[in-house]
Inverse folding.
């Protein structure tokens, strides 16, 4: 199971990569393995305001629809438009081309409350 | 992230039952989920991959959770025929027959397969979640032996199944065979739309039979693929597409209802419904635009008019688009009717299709 060192995590299996005041958000390798066969992604729209801990996107696999929660609060500045035609990117490259959306953080210190890679590994029992 | 199955959060049950193959599933790395009171594999590798394995080669399913009843005796045929909708007199020796168990209101208690083992001995294979309910219904009306706990069942399904198994048995028939050293009843039946077999054996032999079949190239397949395969065939799932709140006529299962045979439970209600005409029908539909997969309970619309809701839905691995079934008002049930599926807060275009979606390659 891949848990990159340069990311922070939520208990609900989202990851965050901090780039200045921007948070890039996706779902973890563990999450994509649990879902398998991702067939549809509904990211938030640019301009939407998202709130930490609140549902803001949907990822659908063959069997299930899953709510995605915003790890941090702020304004969505981009959504991964490639996922509309290639949702399987989330399975193939969860931390890279499978990113979901970018948030301009309204409260950057929120990132410090997220799980470290070690804490996330413990959380999923790795 | 929080996973939902359909529109319902997955239930967590403390007391799930396990089949004799539970540890075999875990050893293969299966993702186990609750289904009808049982802890069952939903997939091993991926639902998509397992689905294609059955359509193109051969897959193996553990269906030991299903129930097996034996009903025998000189009165067995007569009494069963008073409880089931199909005419059991038309089921020849060694033959299988799909039938429905209805209540007085013609609501569907269960759907099942009857096998005639002898002139006066019948095997019934029923849905796992209905074993207790069916037993109570039968026991109030006839003598029944419940073999569900002692019997394991494996479904070997796909175009290569017959070659792998190497036994000869006509479609929709059952016989006794020694399959790779395991004594089985083998039936040429299934729930996938492909050629295939359902093998019943003693629970203690299940692991050996499972291993033998995997060693000969069958791919282990979970309930996820079983669900998408049956949906492409528009086979109803009891508890979703058919329930005690729906009738065989509404479900489009009239060809399994012998209204012309002597009286059976539900017949009067079915005759009355036939005379009144149907107000709703179980229709199959296909999305016609890029859309999230349809799921149970999503509302269905014709224009602005709500005409029903989805009972089963999924992305179809064979068709590459979302498909589903649902009860709709009878005047909106004809193939070709454009409908809308409301998914979260948006409406997506779909069309009513002729059943089934998938036709087996000859």
């Amino acid at each position: 199971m891949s848990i990159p060192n340069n990311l922070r995590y939520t208990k609900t299996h989202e990851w965050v990569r901090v780039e200045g005041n921007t948070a890039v958000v996706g779902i973890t390798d563990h999450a994509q393995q649990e879902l398998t066969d991702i067939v549809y992604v509904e990211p938030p729209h640019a301009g939407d305001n998202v709130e930490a801990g609140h549902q803001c996107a949907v990822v659908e696999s063959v069997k299930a629809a899953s709510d995605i929660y915003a790890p941090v609060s702020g304004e969505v500045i981009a959504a991964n438009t490639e996922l509309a035609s290639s949702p399987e990117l989330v399975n193939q490259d969860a931390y890279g081309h499978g990113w979901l959306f970018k948030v301009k953080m309204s409260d950057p210190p929120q990132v410090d409350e997220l799980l470290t890679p070690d804490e996330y590994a413990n959380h999923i029992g790795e | 992230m929080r996973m939902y199955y359909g529109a319902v959060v997955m239930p967590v049950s403390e007391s799930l039952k396990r089949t004799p193959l539970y540890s075999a599933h875990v050893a293969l790395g299966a993702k186990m989920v609750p289904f009808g009171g049982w802890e069952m594999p939903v997939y091993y590798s991926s639902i998509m991959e397992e689905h294609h394995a059955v359509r193109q080669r051969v897959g193996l399913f553990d269906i030991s959770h299903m129930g097996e009843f034996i009903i025998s005796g000189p009165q067995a045929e007569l009494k069963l025929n008073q409880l089931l909708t199909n005419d059991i007199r038309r089921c020849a020796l060694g033959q299988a027959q799909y039938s429905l168990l209805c209540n007085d209101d013609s609501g569907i208690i269960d759907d099942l397969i009857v096998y005639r083992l002898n002139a006066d001995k019948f095997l019934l294979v029923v849905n796992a979640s209905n074993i207790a309910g069916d037993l109570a219904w039968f026991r109030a009306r006839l003598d029944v032996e419940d073999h569900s706990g002692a019997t394991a069942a494996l479904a070997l399904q796909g175009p290569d199944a017959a070659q792998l198994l190497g036994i000869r048995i006509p479609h929709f028939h059952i016989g006794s065979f020694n399959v790779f050293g395991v004594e089985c009843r083998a039936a040429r039946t299934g729930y996938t739309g492909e050629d295939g077999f359902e093998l019943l054996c003693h629970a203690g032999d299940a692991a050996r039979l499972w291993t033998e079949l995997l060693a000969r190239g069958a791919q282990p397949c979970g309930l996820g693929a079983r669900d998408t395969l049956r949906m492409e065939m528009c086979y109803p799932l009891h508890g979703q597409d058919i329930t005690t709140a729906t009738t065989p006529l509404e479900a489009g299962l009239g060809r399994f209802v012998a209204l012309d045979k002597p009286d059976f439970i539900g017949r009067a209600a079915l005759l009355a419904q036939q005379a009144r005409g149907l107000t709703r029908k179980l229709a199959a539909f296909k999305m016609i635009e890029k859309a999230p997969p349809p799921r149970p309970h999503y509302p269905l619309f014709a224009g602005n008019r709500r005409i029903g809701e989805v009972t089963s839905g999924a992305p179809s691995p064979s068709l590459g688009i979302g498909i589903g079934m649902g009860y709709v008002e009878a005047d909106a049930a004809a193939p070709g009717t454009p409908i809308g599926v409301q998914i979260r807060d948006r409406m997506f275009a779909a069309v009513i299709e002729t059943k089934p979606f998938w036709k087996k390659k000859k």
Notes: Chain A touches chain B at residues 12-14, 27, 31, 34-37, 39-40, 42, 55, 58-69, 84 (CB under 8 Å).
